[in-house]
Amino acid sequence: MSRILVDGHGGDHAPGIVVEALAAIHAEYADAANKPTLGIVGQTEILLPALQQAGIADVVQIVPASETIGMSESPAMALRRKKDSSIHVGARQVRDGEWDALVSAGNTGALMAISKFILKTIPGVDRPAIASMLPAEGKSGKTLLLDAGANVDSSSEHLTQFAIMGSCYMEAAEGIQSPRVGVLNIGSEDIKGTDVVKMASASISDLDLNFIGNVEGTDLFLDNVDVVVCDGFVGNVALKTMEGVAHFIIANLKREFTGSLSARLGMLLAQNALRKLKTRIDPSEYNGAPLLGLNGIVVKSHGSADALGFSRSIQVAHREVESNLKSRIVESMNQWMEQ
Amino acid sequence: MSRILVDGHGGDHAPGIVVEALAAIHAEYADAANKPTLGIVGQTEILLPALQQAGIADVVQIVPASETIGMSESPAMALRRKKDSSIHVGARQVRDGEWDALVSAGNTGALMAISKFILKTIPGVDRPAIASMLPAEGKSGKTLLLDAGANVDSSSEHLTQFAIMGSCYMEAAEGIQSPRVGVLNIGSEDIKGTDVVKMASASISDLDLNFIGNVEGTDLFLDNVDVVVCDGFVGNVALKTMEGVAHFIIANLKREFTGSLSARLGMLLAQNALRKLKTRIDPSEYNGAPLLGLNGIVVKSHGSADALGFSRSIQVAHREVESNLKSRIVESMNQWMEQ
């Protein structure tokens, strides 16, 4: 049974949406055999009334932490100066085995720096990666992209480690048999790209993975690949470009659909279709980016996530715990190091 | 008056859509004072019947070239071995002043390599860049992204040159007064990103440009910036990610809208709105990527462009000629080198 601790103070809408998400998860898993135990870390005087108001004060345990980290605070300063922040306390609780996972919508850099400092990395992992889930065609409907921004100037060794961890994740947490792994490049031919991606391709093709070679930005949303590895600078640009295009198209769709009477009528008739479309591409549905490679489970929620989005992050953590993801990554990294 | 030569053999649908685009441009500028003179380079025995069928054999001049370059041929081999290819002949015609610009939907690498070899670069430009236009909010409705894939491992000096050229382009060819120039990064703070982007920011901020600092992937589609510079690997990933998301959303939109009777009725009522949306985000409307920094005007059309898309590329070339873009870049590069 998984024990999930959430950060009561991270993100743009904390603790409101965090508590709302906890209530949703509590209701959703009410009769489930694998119901997670839920906790929230932060300032009791703020969190207790919120839990009481949501009617879940008796089922969600509060872990006290006196400090909070701002969204734009320097990660290095937050790491050194705020030892009683919700992230510090949460990561220590996971390290000490009190809780199985920490979920936070807080400052990404601080979450990564503090988690890395307290939990350390799995042997063989030089740099943990942020793994982001993207919507895609195909049966799974998902592609995992990593690194999505934790590291810049990744080496081919780093990309190789990302490939191992990403493959473990999709197999364990998403149940995809021998996930297809690709390297993000600017063409499918072997001669394309930087030396780093060429060397990474060579090195990943030696592993016991279902490696399919180079993929391009267009492949991310098709049924061509399950795990895409790239440098964190490139991955972050791809992710934010995706967000930007999706917002742009949806904003224009809304504008056009409210522009005339017939368009408004059309929208009414098509509202089921539009709702399905929204579910398909809604960033909230794909929210919850695991920080892979840490010696403990940490999941990052988007800072602007709503309650649905935050609850998805809790489910990501829950699946990571239930599927023994950490042990699987430890095992795969050991195999790699012994090669 | 501009003289535009188009490659009769480049792209997935040549010469069909190329000839169709020429006919469209001929019709569109029929009574215009600035009507471009049109030519097509390639195999007469193929192109003449096509022009005749389209009824434009008397207004479009054929420049003979006996060879063609395949879309997946090695640029280096094409450069050395196919001296009578449509791209070689076209670039030589531009170099020799017979024509003002070459437009091709052919092999991007070969077009860049051959153009660079024959036309050379403008003094001060180390590497020409591919500049791609993206749809965006705001009055201009456009953002220029460069480099979109001509160069990998760009240095901060290269990014600085891209900033100068991109700013010249948006001012001259698009008529945007003091375009806002940004560096693509993974956060807006100065401490973010690689050393190359930090150094590029420092160097661009010393120029006489409207430099706004770091921008992110989401900014590309907002009214926040007009010219975004980045390494070609990063730019290509951003561009193809954009294409991938747009296709994914539109495919899902179509699927949902044809899924039920009420959705189909809704689509009928909203068809004007959907048509406007399509025009707004249609890649054809934004087609035509100038290769900036060459000592001559060359425009790359997407290989899979339709006739509308190819005609937009011809218009890009036409605007570059009419606005004296090359002289403006020469002048700006000279100012920079004298600093």
Kindly list the characteristics that best describe this protein:
homodimer; 339 residues; alpha/beta; Isopropylmalate Dehydrogenase; 2 domains; 11 strands
Structural write-up:
The structure is a homodimer of 339-residue chains. Chain A is an alpha/beta fold and 339 residues long. Chain A folds into two domains: 1-125 and 293-324, Isopropylmalate Dehydrogenase (3-Layer(aba) Sandwich), CATH 3.40.718.10; 130-284, Isopropylmalate Dehydrogenase (3-Layer(aba) Sandwich). The first copy, chain A, contains twelve helices and eleven strands. Chain A has helices at residues 16-28, 44-53, 75-81, 86-95, 108-119, 156-172, 195-205, 232-257, 261-269, 271-281, 307-322, 325-338; strands spanning 3-7, 37-42, 60-64, 101-104, 129-135, 142-146, 180-184, 210-215, 227-229, 289-292, 297-300. An eleven-stranded mixed β-sheet of chain A has the order 3-2-1-4-11-10-5-6-9-7-8, sandwiched between helices. In chain A, α1 links the parallel β1 (3-7) and β2 (37-42). The longest helix of chain A has 26 residues, at 232-257. The mean pLDDT of chain A is 94.
